[in-house]
Amino acid sequence: MAKQATTKQSTTKQDSEQLDNTDKSGEKVTTPKSTASKSASSKTRDISLAAADMSAIVEQLNTLLANYHIFYTNVRGYHWNVRGSDFFTLHVKFEELYTALQVQIDEIAERILTLQGTPLHAYSDFLKISSIKEDKNVSDGVACVKGILTGLTMTIAKEREIIDLADEDDDQGTADQLTAYVQEQEKLVWMYNAYLG
Ligand SMILES: [Fe+2]
Questions:
Q1: 52-196 has which fold?
Q2: DSSP-assigned beta bridge partners for residue 43
Q3: Ligand 1 centre and the CA of 92: distance in Å?
C-alpha cells in the first residue's frame, strides 16, 4: 500500500513538471496533454495504472455490468411471480438478492468510471453482451432457485476471470472489490443449493 502511494506521488510530480516547464528564455512552455501522458511511461496521473490495462479491465467490467442487469431483472421477476407454499420465504429472499445486486451494479459502474471508462447504461447493449439470458414468466419456486443458481455461478465465473486480469495488471482495487462479491455469492450458492436439498 505504502509503495503504491509513493509511486503515485512521484508520477504526479513528474507530470506536473512536464505540463508546466519554463524554457531558457524564461517563457512558459505548455506541453500538450497527450504528449505529457505518453512521456509519463503510459501511466495516468490519477491512479498509476497503465491506460491500456485500465481499458481492458473496463471492457470486462462492462460485460459483467451487462450480466448483472439481466440477472437483476430475472430475480425481480422471480420475486414477483413465485407462487406456492414457500411464497413468503422465497419472495423475501429474492428481494434480498436483487437489492444486493442493485448495490453491486452501482459499485461496478463507479469502478468503471474510476478506471476512466464509461459504464454501459442501455438494456439493448446489456442484452447483446450478457451471457446470462432473460428468464421469463417463472413461478415455480424450485425453477426460480435454479435460475438464481445459474445466474450466480455464471457471475462468479466472470468475476474470477476479471480478478485474474486485474491481478496481472496490479489493479488490486478491482480485484479486491470483485473478490468480496465472489465470497458473498459463493455463500449464496451454498444456501440456495441447500434449499434444493
Ligand atoms: Fe416487492
A1: Ferritin (1.20.1260)
A2: 50
A3: 8
